[in-house]
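This protein record is not my work; I was only asked to verify it. Take the sequence as given and treat only the tokens as open to question. I have pasted the whole thing underneath without changing anything:
***
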Amino acid sequence: MARNVIKDQQQRELRRNQILSAAASVFSVRGVAVAKISDIATEAGLSYGHVYNFFESKEKILLALVQSSQERYTELLLEARGGSGTALDKLRWLIEQYLQKGSTSTNFWIVLQAQATEVLNPEEKAEINQKAQANRDLLADIIRDGQSEGTIVEGDTVELATLLLSLFQSTSIWGYRGFGEPSDHAADIMLRLVVRK
């Protein structure tokens, strides 16, 4: 009897996601530099060898997590940019979505570790930085739209985007720093940085 190819692909994707989820948990608690494949396998409830059937190294797992995280953020930025309302409405929605996503803080924490440690090679880090800058440029586009509307302060859009991005990304990892969770008003407080008065 022939195996169901679609079912096999679905099972393989489920297993891959199981490994990535376990890796995110391990990396966020132990750190990417000291985490081992065996830690990830244990967290996933799989054998060491089973993890290697999907990823050849811890570095490849880390890279897959970072790329996935950056792609999800790109999708969020594009959704914000294409949304209705003013640029301020779009920025408020973006920040609220970013802060509400349960895995955002974990993903951002892992991206920071990937950039700050020597786990990935310089070429891989350069790719991460290029994607981060491309995402920042999408945020700058929303700010530029707001400047055209007269709702956002004048100034270098890339610098304003970098400041705003730094603020809401850092806020997303308050839990790791023992600061608790941001209030429901956090987005409005952050937007005061860029609102034209």
Notes: The chain has a mean pLDDT of 92.
